[in-house]
Write a structure and sequence with these properties.
homodimer; five-stranded mixed beta sheet; nucleotide-binding (chains A, B); 2 domains; aa-tRNA-synth_II/BPL/LPL (chains A, B); protein biosynthesis (chains A, B); about 475 residues; about 20% strand; cytoplasm (chains A, B); alpha+beta; Rossmann fold; ATP-binding (chains A, B); BirA Bifunctional Protein, domain 2
Chain lengths: ~475, ~475
């Protein structure tokens, strides 16, 4: 087999990169659990007809066929309700899981879910075909109080904030509210709300001038209406003065809208609560327009300060109908972190590094193969006390065993006490058959001391691999 | 959307089942890491031609096609080197990963890998189409010392042994050595070694009489040769007397074989070392024949004592050629645990249960929506000290909030101190605006005490959900 080459769009990490990814995953999981979210996993596949309900994503779906089925007549089975596809997000599977298990879940149901998803997109612009997502959602049966729209972005901000310790830049959660946008546009006399939003969504890409032209040419706005939409999108800030500015803008255009007022009350409450619980993290930004076809209240995007060009690393919003079985409707609010993109950025930009790529803090040396059992016993004693260690693969010269540890970043090498040499016994400085004390060497400093596997421990910062900001 | 039904062969757990699965995964991971295995993940897909190298598994492979490609002409792209399939084990991807990254890995390379795999088999007999595997392997560049064939099954035995605390039955690792079998058969004059092994492999299913007949009818053995094979397969034991019994059997048939002697030396060393490091866990069992088409030394199966009919829950062996790039050959030894089958058994047979299905140890009650910020502040203080908690979703009557906690198994409910009533202020027993002390209630005992979120902690056994043996 020739040396294989990577598959574009399917990222994999070397062991030290995986230490970084695992740290990110563990940190997210811990924060989610501290906030009371229960972990679930769903199967990787869903019936194709369920995946295709959102038409615009259909081309991204990977369809599964069993090799035998394909081979029989050259085409996969086409019976849609038997066909399976890989999920492209964790929201569709979660909605199905909620309906399937509604009778066994307690609502409001708060869950986190960290899994791979697949999209058959052309890999470009840092887009992956397989990537890990970390989602939190809360879903109610019949109703869901607004305060969850305040809580969920703060949980994500807390989770990402925990990663600042390893060098993740500061995050800024940008929030908007669909009711504000819809109320304002309708109040202006623009009823193609989705059309306006789709156009406004291009602001960062094409700029205000082109968006203004498009609003006139494609959505049928007057110049004044277009300018009002651009003025609304230009409003942002981290305190409730944002609400006043939107109100003033609306008043200047004679816009009166109950929906707008409702949205502003919600947006103001969110910014208010966030300024107490996580000062400076949440910013109201009226140009945020994402996925407004099914979001119905708050919407969120999250950027890394100083890396805004990366786009949003964590997005979501409120949806009045996550799922419905005809009798009960399940509203929800949730956000999703693109973990692979985040880890790829952390590693690619050399922002972080693992202190080592192997778990072992100690390499137990082997004096000769006949005494390997002594080394195994040392390792067992250390492991029983929670100290990760490895035993040298061969009884090479100690210098080579030390290089084995050094190459892997293992900080300590342990030397089991040796039988005394015949000379020492003859000289009376040692007793035949009585092993000398074990010793442990910090191979970074060269310091070597007597040690007992029943009591010795490495410094806490050396016990497990850690993830730290890169020096460079 | 009507209520969806489960997909056969694609297991999912409710939140409390996921607590059990997560505990199993965390326990395995910790044991693997204590033994120095580095964690990696590989992508879910491999090129189809790589997956089909082992012909007998071809029908199990799920092939991917992008929906668009299928829709164009009704057939997926057939260009084999562009086609991708889902991996059906973690060995094929690991071999590819080793070759792809050989220049960046340090050998011997010890890795663990815990991921889902997919097989398009008919779901039956507890077989899943999607399931999690937990693999450990060590791979060398050019060579790999025998002692790893002793170490790896003991690591798996240690990992599974950790699960006895939650109610997993005792495990027994059954070991054999391909050299023993091959040396013995060839020494008898039976050169169709694979044929004999395939037939012997059916012993548990069809019994000795039918296997004996098949050896004569299908592999061309004489009655005496067939009986000798059956006699070999009947030998088992946990000490080195096994080696003596095999030698005696060989001698009685005039078998002389260097390969047999080499295999017996290895098997004896394994049983010997295991009896010191994990007494009673490893049993030599000469009928173990698994996958001997590519295993070349030790082979392993693992059964749960008292649940032998489940079959092997953890299997593997030594392979002289895990991978090869033409210049370097990479021998390895590894084992794989079928985690989903194990968890399914633990849950299905009601052997274990989670103490609760949500992470929260505390529900912080909400007195009224106007003081929700007080409850949020309590929750933040508890979380900052590592105590998982949830805040009540609505300011319902306290009785209802307590039932909310009770239904989820949350053991403690926290009541933020309240503003005094006007009567108390008038009576001089309280000061207006001065909140009374917070209180926390253990809803199991009913005990309620004053508490400070800056210092109070639940008993350690209540802090996180635990997995315990089921009472029943």
């Amino acid at each position: 087999m020739a040396r294989p080459t990577p598959l574009s769009g399917f990222p994999e990490w070397l062991p030290d990169g995986r230490v970084v990814e695992q740290h990110v995953l563990d940190t997210l999981r811990r924060t989610f659990e501290l906030h009371g979210f229960a972990g679930i996993e769903t199967r990787a596949v869903e019936p194709l007809d369920q995946l295709l309900r959102k038409g615009e994503t259909s081309k991204e779906v990977y369809v599964l066929s069993r090799l035998q089925e394909v081979a029989d007549d050259g085409a996969p089975a086409r019976d849609a309700d038997k066909q399976l596809g890989l999920h492209f997000d964790l929201t569709v599977p979660f909605a199905r899981y909620v309906l399937e298990n509604a009778g066994k879940l307690a609502f409001p149901f708060k869950r986190y879910q960290i899994q791979k998803v697949w999209r058959g997109e052309r890999p470009q612009d840092g887009r992956f075909r397989e990537f890990a997502q970390a989602d939190i959602d809360v879903v109610g049966a019949g109703g869901l109080p607004y305060h969850f729209e305040v809580e969920l972005p703060l949980v994500m901000a807390a989770a990402l904030g925990e990663l600042r310790a390893i060098g993740l830049p500061e995050v800024r959660v940008l929030v908007n509210n669909r009711r504000v946008a819809e109320g304002f546009y309708r109040g202006l006399g623009l009823d193609d709300v989705d059309g306006v939003l789709r156009t406004i969504d291009k602001l960062d890409k094409v700029g205000a001038a082109k968006v203004g032209e498009a609003l006139v040419a494609e959505v049928g706005a007057s110049d004044a209406q277009a300018q009002a939409c651009l003025d609304l999108a230009a409003i942002n800030g981290s305190d409730t003065s944002v609400v006043d500015r939107v109100r003033a803008l609306a008043a200047s255009h004679g816009v009166e809208s109950e929906l707008l007022e409702q949205g502003l009350a919600e947006l103001g409450a969110l910014v208010d609560a966030a300024s107490v619980r996580a000062p400076g993290v949440v910013v109201a930004d009226l140009k945020i327009a994402r996925g407004l076809d099914y979001y119905t209240g708050s919407v969120y995007e999250t950027v890394l300060v100083g890396h805004e060009q990366l786009g949003s690393i964590c997005s979501g919003g409120r949806y009045d109908t996550l799922a419905s079985d005809g009798r009960t409707t399940y509203p929800g609010v949730g956000l999703s972190i693109g973990v692979s993109r985040l880890v790829s950025r952390l590693l690619g930009a050399d922002l972080v590094r693992a202190t080592r790529g192997v778990p072992a803090a100690v390499l137990v040396a082997v004096t000769d193969e006949a005494t390997r059992a002594d080394s195994d016993a040392v390792a067992a004693a250390l492991r029983a006390r929670g100290i990760p260690c490895d035993v040298a693969p061969s009884a090479a010269k100690f210098g080579k065993q030390i290089r084995y540890a050094d190459r892997r970043g293992i900080p300590f090498v342990w030397f089991p006490g040796q039988e005394p040499g015949a000379d020492d016994v003859a000289a009376g400085t040692a007793v035949a058959g009585e092993r000398g004390p074990d010793q442990v060497k910090d191979i970074r400093s060269g310091e070597q001391v007597d040690a007992d596997a029943a009591t010795w421990a490495p410094p806490a910062e050396d016990l497990w691999p850690r993830v730290v900001p890169s020096a460079g």
